Amino acid sequence: MTTTSPQATDRTDPVHAQLQYQLAVFARRMEQVRTSGGGVGALDRAAYLLLDRLERHGPANVKALAESLGVDSSTVTRQVAPLVAAGLGGGGGGPPAPPPPRRAVRLALTARGSGRLDEVRDGRAELTRRLMADWPEEEQRAFCALLARFNHAMESYTADQQGQ
Description:
Layout: H1 6-9, H2 14-35, H3 45-57, E1 60-61, H4 62-69, H5 73-85, E2 89-91, E3 106-109, H6 111-131, H7 137-163
Helix pairs in contact: 3-6, 4-5
């Protein structure tokens, strides 16, 4: 299957038309790889990003997680529940206390969650290595840098839109 959209190449701004199309194809392919197994594990994007955030920054409450991921607290609350049920995340430790409001609960990465995150990262890294095996190293680095820059621009745009 080709990844060139005939409609995208006919636009007055072919680079941006083609780019938006390629991003849509990329998102679809990533989901296909995830749901097919593809050797990268079954963590969905939300679970992966939540576990990664907890590993990098330590325990956090739902509000802090939501702010760091740029989503609503209710979204994080829904996403956290299956992680806790699977034993990948849990309370931030300390003595048992009366249950606080759900948004006040501090979530921490469990040992099981850390192991699962490592497993998924390893699978994703191996897939990336396979997909880019014939790319020169400098192109791999350039793609990574440009994708990071693009993601940062999207993050800034979203923050600006929410601030208006």
